[in-house]
Write a structure and sequence with these properties.
The complex is a heterodimer of chains A (496) and B (320).
Chain A: E1 4-15, E2 19-30, E3 34-39, H1 45-52, E4 60-65, E5 68-70, H2 75-80, E6 83-86, H3 98-102, E7 109-110, E8 113-114, H4 116-129, H5 145-158, E9 163-167, H6 175-190, E10 194-198, H7 202-208, E11 211-216, E12 219-225, H8 231-239, E13 258-267, E14 272-279, E15 283-287, H9 294-301, E16 307-313, E17 316-317, H10 323-328, E18 331-334, H11 338-342, H12 349-354, H13 366-379, H14 396-409, E19 414-418, H15 426-441, E20 445-449, H16 453-459, E21 462-467, E22 470-475, H17 482-491
Parallel strand pairs in A: 3-10, 3-11, 6-9, 9-10, 15-20, 15-21, 18-19, 19-20
Antiparallel strand pairs in A: 1-2, 1-4, 4-5, 7-8, 11-12, 13-14, 13-16, 16-17, 21-22
Chain B: H1 2-11, H2 13-28, H3 35-60, H4 68-84, H5 89-113, H6 118-137, H7 147-154, E1 156-160, E2 163-166, H8 167-185, H9 187-197, H10 199-204, H11 209-235, H12 246-256, H13 268-287, H14 292-316
Antiparallel strand pairs in B: 1-2
Helix pairs in contact in B: 1-2, 2-13, 3-8, 3-11, 3-12, 3-13, 4-5, 4-6, 4-11, 5-6, 5-11, 7-11, 8-9, 9-11, 12-13, 13-14
The chains are: A alpha/beta (496), B mainly alpha (320).
Chain lengths: 496, 320
């Protein structure tokens, strides 16, 4: 206990009127370790992180920093004490330069004048420590996400952070980029910095973490040495009962006719797809590194991005100019970001679910819309209170089901799912892929894009690898092993 | 039951505030709660009110229309000029309404198609339309309008024994009802809320979001045209300097009525009560013989107080 740099003792957090986010949660972080935090959605991870970072104040319990109880009234106080938080949506100012961002709020200088020379020097040092290959004078908006991540870490260093909290840094990084971030983490840990690392991906935690604390329902379930703990044990701790990771199901052979035939599709940023087919009843996965064109391809198919080319849908030419065209032809898109692209968060559930199908009449028919919504939500086993409830009050998994319900209600037969499992916990993921399976069995043609190869491997009849805007190879998950596909996504070469 | 009532009171807090101000006004002045004064209130609120109803549509989509004051003046002049050039009042009104709607639709289309913030497009509109208004007669007011035209705004319609209300007031109330029904009962209304709530999600749900933005500006232009016609009818003169700063009164009323400037939340009912609230305030100050300086100061404070109250309620409901 005594060598902990940070101890969280029996912290509770209640949000008025009735939500208990944390109930007597504890956490001990040692200097020089990577301490991972695991938990399903709603387990209280983000609340705990925000309490440590000073963004929330605990209702009960206390924080002990280097042996002294501290009370953090705001994030600025936390960072003065050496606690630095790197949010998933990196809180950098894109229009400013790297060095301006690094020293935002604590620039060296006197009387409000900035000592630019000193700042440049210290910025270069911090960038060097994180192994950045860019200069401090470039604008953050011109950097790749990985380099922005490095900038955020460098920013923590300029504040002499003893504890750096990283909230799902891997969500927006591809595997090579993640590797370089990991190298930086290892170097920091060697110098005595403690890292609190949050991620859903077990493989990643094994690679970088020393210990892991599991939260469930706002309580600490336990802290484990990662090396000594099996995946199965961790998953059990997370979800509370035995439930296996997404497992490969026996799938029936696909017998349907060709639904969608992309003979050629050329779009912005070098997107160039040829000869991609999906049959009725088939689930086709798209994998690839970030920026490999998965999202652009789906958006183009859905009429949201301009493209040139030749696509046949049900043996008829298909060239949507707006999403409305694609929707009329029976397509549905579950976009990558359900909060900014998929849902109107403050609108009721039933209005979200019937939004695409409202065009059928001039007048709204609220009770009719609810009637259509309820059975579909039920068939998706969605947990919600009333259909009039705002969709923002649902958990991530249930929100995703509302997005899916939109297209089912509208009678979509070609479903495009872009990272449908992002931010979902393991139980919700398994649920989601069960649904995908069922939809395909009912005859829908489904395309799933995901950076989680494991999931595609379990759920798809075929997997296409995308690389730098091109579809380089089609694999049969029954025949090809995971590593071969993974190699192709990274190397961009097709081996059978 | 008591809890439900409290919830309703919070949801419709603008009505509670309005009633409170009415009670205060009644105790301050014996002349306030008289039929004549109430009829006056509606008559005076009508122009801003009609414009504010159109503004509600625009703000619900997360946009703003700064040009309405100038469109009111432009249309008020246009109808006067047309009639003084011998057009039949009906024809003049029809042409004016079409012109106002077209002005709004054009700005909406520019904003939606070229992805320019509506603030800038309508700011340009504010300046240019006022310029056109002055150009029409070189800045000279137009008078000598037909008698029948004045009747549009000032016919007194008896609705209770001893209580008559001007046609302007009735038009305002009628437009509120129609607008409320459009927002609540039509798919177009639903699309307006959806576009304001999350434009990207609306677009990816196949909604014609550009058309919707263009349409709400057309509605706003249409309402501003009606406002201009009513104004000229009441003044019995086309006045090119009229309605300066009217856009700000309209925006203040919409926001005071609980419609979110970020779009997606609000409605016409709130706008109606806010317009009347602001009119009652003006009225009290007049009845008490206090000048417009007091009026302006207090109006600003009331707006801030109402916005803070709404923020507080949002916060309590976890809408951050």
């Amino acid at each position: 206990m005594s060598n902990d740099v940070l101890t969280v003792q029996n912290v509770s957090k209640t949000f008025l009127p009735t939500i208990i986010a944390l109930e007597s949660a504890s956490l001990g972080v040692k200097a020089g370790e990577v301490h991972c935090l695991l938990g399903a959605n709603g387990a209280g991870k983000s609340t705990l992180l925000k309490i440590i970072a000073g963004a929330f104040r605990p209702t009960e319990g206390r924080l002990v920093l280097e042996g002294r109880p501290v009370e953090l009234r705001n994030p600025a106080e936390a960072s003065r004490l050496g606690i630095s938080m790197i949010y998933q949506e990196l809180d950098l100012v894109p229009q400013l330069t790297v060095e301006q961002n690094l020293f935002l709020g604590h620039a060296p200088g006197k009387f409000g004048l900035i000592n630019r020379k000193d700042r440049r020097k210290r910025a270069s040092e911090a960038l060097k420590r994180v192994g950045a290959n860019f200069t401090p004078d470039v604008r953050v908006e011109t950097l790749s996400v990985a380099n922005q991540q490095l900038t955020a870490i460098a920013r923590s260093l300029t504040m002499d952070a003893k504890i750096i909290i990283m909230d799902e840094p891997s969500a927006s990084l591809n595997e090579t980029e993640l590797k370089s971030v990991f190298e930086v983490i290892r170097d920091l840990v060697k110098h005595g910095v403690a890292i609190v690392y949050v991620s859903h991906r077990l493989g990643e935690l094994r690679e970088i973490g020393d210990r892991v604390t599991v939260l469930r329902g706002g309580r600490t379930i336990g802290t484990y040495e990662i090396a000594d703990t099996s995946d199965e044990a961790l998953v059990t701790a997370i979800i509370g009962k035995e439930r296996s990771l997404v497992e490969r199901k026996e799938r029936k052979p696909v017998t349907g006719e060709v639904a969608l035939h992309v003979n050629r599709l050329r779009g912005a940023e070098g997107l160039d797809i040829t000869g991609l087919e999906v049959r009725w009843g088939e689930v086709v996965g798209l994998t690839g590194l970030n920026g490999s064109g998965r999202t652009s391809f789906l958006k183009a198919l859905f009429g949201a991005h301009h493209f040139e080319g030749e696509i046949m849908l049900d043996d008829e030419r298909f060239h949507p100019r707006h999403s409305a065209d694609a929707i009329r032809r029976g397509l549905g898109l579950v976009p990558e970001n359900r909060k900014t692209e998929g849902l109107i968060l403050h609108a009721p559930i039933y209005k979200n679910a019937t939004l695409p199908s409202m065009r059928e009449s001039w007048l709204t028919r609220h009770s009719f819309q609810k009637q259509r919504t309820i059975p579909v939500l039920k068939s998706l086993s969605t947990k919600y209170g009333k259909p009039e409830q705002a969709v923002v009050q649902l958990s991530g998994g249930n929100q995703q089901k509302v997005v899916l319900a939109k297209w089912i209600i509208n009678g979509a037969r070609v479903l495009l799912l872009d990272e449908p499992s992002r931010g979902l916990d393991i139980g919700a993921k398994a649920d989601l892929y069960d649904l995908v399976d069922k939809l395909a069995e009912d005859g829908a043609a489904v395309i799933v894009a995901s950076s989680e190869l494991e999931e595609l491997y379990a759920a798809c009849d075929a997997i296409w690898v995308f690389h730098e805007g091109r579809n380089i190879g089609r694999y049969d998950p029954f025949v090809t092993d995971r590593d071969t596909i993974l190699r192709a996504t990274i190397l961009g070469e097709h081996h059978v | 039951m008591g809890r439900r009532l409290v919830d309703l009171g919070i949801e419709y807090n603008f009505i509670v505030i309005f009633l409170a101000v009415v009670v205060i006004a009644t105790t301050l002045s014996d002349n306030f709660l008289t039929f004549t004064n109430i009829a006056n209130l509606f008559q005076q609120a009508a122009v801003v009110g009609v414009v504010a109803v159109g503004m509600t549509f625009v703000i619900l989509t997360g946009n703003i229309d700064l040009s309405v004051g100038s469109i009111v003046a432009l249309c008020g002049m246009l109808v006067a000029v047309l009639m003084s050039n011998g057009f039949d009042p009906f024809v003049a009104v029809a042409i004016t309404v079409v012109a106002g709607t077209a002005c709004g639709a054009a700005m909406g289309a520019i904003s939606a198609l070229a992805q320019v913030p509506s603030f800038i497009v309508t700011l340009a509109g504010l300046v240019s339309f006022r310029g056109v208004t002055y150009l029409m007669t070189d800045g000279v007011p137009v008078s000598g309008l037909p008698q029948g035209f004045a009747a549009i705004g000032s016919t007194m319609v008896p609705i209770l024994p001893g209580f008559a209300i001007s046609s302007m007031g009735l038009i305002f109330i009628g437009l509120c009802v129609v607008a409320g029904l459009v927002l609540r009962l039509t798919v177009f209304g639903e699309y307006v809320f959806a576009t304001g709530g999350n434009p990207e999600a609306a677009r990816l749900s196949g909604l014609p979001t550009r058309f919707i933005v263009t349409a709400v500006f057309a509605v706003s232009g249409f309402m501003a045209a009606l406002g201009g016609i009513l104004l000229t009818s009441r003044l019995r003169i086309g006045q090119p300097t009229a309605a300066q700063g009217l856009e700000l009164d309209a925006i203040a009323a919409v926001v005071l009525g609980g419609t979110s400037l970020f779009g997606g939340r609000g409605g016409v009912l709130g706008t109606f009560f806010a317009v009347m609230l602001l009119q009652v305030l003006r009225n009290i100050f007049n009845l008490l013989g206090l000048g417009s300086f007091y009026q302006m100061t207090v109006t600003g404070i009331i707006i801030i107080a109402a916005i803070l109250l709404n923020r507080f309620i949002d916060h309590r409901k976890g809408r951050g």
